[in-house]
Design a protein that fits this description.
This protein has 17 helices and 18 strands. It has 482 residues and is of the alpha/beta class.
Length: 482
């Protein structure tokens, strides 16, 4: 949305959807195809309505029948059609046809594109809201290679027709952004919501690729999705690639570890390994169907003020280098994180945490916005057979604190006792005592000040990465003189 002031009035300069489609149509160089599966030809309809579409649209098609679709794009082994893999096959196939059927000699200045989506809208029972993959492959120079923008969205409206309209607006915003906002990808993401609200649509995964996006780090684009309120959580793989959380979490057992990981330390890994061993020993937990998620909350990223993108990437890089999946979320409270996981799986879940985190969970101030207060939150947190795997804390007075002697507010003692006695909070007994004195904040201080000894407090290979990439301010100051 673009706003300017005229006198005392705000003037919205955001072009309408019709204006966006018409600008594309009147650009003599932009030429391509539309392929839309599942929710009607909702995007191309915007361009037909705007006028002048013959100069832009080489072909528009849909293949609703699965056999027709399979004949065109190939058979999906898993039998699913609303997937990223299906969308990529659509983009590959349609762009291949453009290159075969449209001669470069005849169209030397054309900027070829193909837009595609594979979508399912809300069902008649209104049980499944609907979701879809949307993407565009395009050129901004006829002599240059192709660029891709691929995203996943979830619909929030309770009417199929409204969802179709929303899809058409989103698609038009994406095509317009690809050609006219490609050089400002962060702004392009915001413009996807032009004439849409976050109550209509959630975008939870996005990936940019191609020559004009060579400098784009897709993890930072994911961070923008959470920061801008487009979604509550994003995930990326150990390879640093943005992945769809639903695809990773669907019907999985989930063990989650929340932390600052600034930087990741041996304590974090000791907690992870011991908690995972305990989790796998539980009934109905299959290691092959278990996901371990290292989660960082947006509030944690903002703990030092505005989000430092370099700092964020440093944490992510180190966790990914250890082979872990990372979740960035907007869930300050644990019960919201568990609710999020529960939307994708009915299998067992576990939370691995230290004593201080558990004490915070029993602080009433985090639940004042709930009509049922802390009892409502705990009902959501422990409504399944979720367990907390608790790592002990070595206090300054050399006293070890675990589930048996940790202190919660007097009003919370009976509530804590209830969950403790019912086996919802279990102590990690096999921890390494030699690691109890390691804290991320102390390691970070040593790195910032070029002090010695921190290398032994982080996992193998992490110190080398920190030094090689100069992460967390390492070597930003001169060593103290002898």
């Amino acid at each position: 949305m673009e706003i300017t002031l005229k006198g005392d009035k705000e003037i919205d300069l955001t072009p309408t959807i019709k204006q966006k489609a018409l600008r594309i149509n009147l650009n003599a160089d932009i030429y391509g195809t539309f392929a839309e599966i599942g929710a009607g030809q909702e995007t191309v309809r915007q361009f037909f309505r705007a006028g002048g579409a013959s100069g832009t649209i080489a072909k528009a098609m849909s293949a609703y029948d699965k056999d027709f679709s399979d004949s065109i794009y190939g058979v999906e082994k898993d039998g699913r059609y609303v997937t990223e893999d299906r969308l990529k096959k659509m983009l590959d196939h349609e762009m291949d046809l453009i290159e075969k059927r449209l001669s470069r000699q005849k169209h030397p200045n054309k900027l070829f594109f193909t837009f595609a989506n594979t979508v399912t809208t809300i069902d008649f029972a209104k049980q499944y809201k609907g979701h879809g993959w949307v993407g565009i492959r395009f050129q901004i120079d006829p002599k240059q290679g192709y660029n891709d923008i691929i995203l996943h969205c979830r619909f929030k409206e309770n009417d199929a027709r409204l969802q179709q309209e929303t899809l058409g607006i989103l698609g038009t915003n994406l095509i317009y952004g690809a050609f006219y906002k490609y050089n400002v990808p962060k702004s392009l993401l915001k413009y996807l919501y032009d004439h849409l609200s976050k109550d209509q649509l959630e975008i939870d995964t996005v990936n940019f690729s191609g020559p004009v996006f060579e400098q784009v780090d897709n993890r930072l684009m994911s961070l923008q999705l959470v920061k801008n309120g487009m979604t509550d959580a994003v995930m990326f793989s150990p390879e640093g690639i943005n992945v769809l959380p639903a695809a990773q979490l669907y019907k999985k057992n989930i063990l989650a570890l929340r932390g600052s990981f600034r930087p990741v330390t041996k304590v974090n890994i000791d907690l992870y390994k011991n908690a995972l061993d305990m989790f796998e020993s539980e009934n109905r937990v299959d290691r092959e169907a278990t996901e371990v998620i290292f989660e960082i909350t947006l509030s944690n990223l903002k703990s030092e003020g505005e989000i430092d993108e370099a700092d964020f990437l440093s944490r992510a890089d180190l966790l990914c280098s250890l082979g872990h999946k990372v979740l960035i979320s907007n869930f300050k409270e644990y019960y919201r994180l568990v609710e999020y996981f529960s939307s994708y799986t009915k299998q067992r879940m576990g939370l691995a945490m230290g004593v201080n985190n558990l004490v915070e969970i029993f602080d009433e101030k985090y639940y004042r916005q709930l009509s049922g207060g802390i009892l409502e939150a705990f009902g959501k947190l422990f409504f399944k057979d979720l367990k907390v795997y608790l790592y002990p804390l070595l206090e300054d007075n050399n006293i070890l604190t675990d589930s048996n002697n940790l202190k919660v507010h007097p009003r919370m003692k009976e509530l804590y006792k209830f969950f403790k006695e019912n086996g919802r909070v279990v102590d990690i007994k096999t921890y390494d005592p030699a690691l109890l004195g390691i804290f991320s904040r102390d390691v970070l201080h040593k790195i910032n000040n070029n002090e010695e000894g921190w290398e032994e407090q982080v996992p193998e290979g992490i110190a080398e990465l920190i030094k090689l990439r100069k992460l967390f301010g390492w070597a930003s100051v001169e060593p103290a003189s002898v």
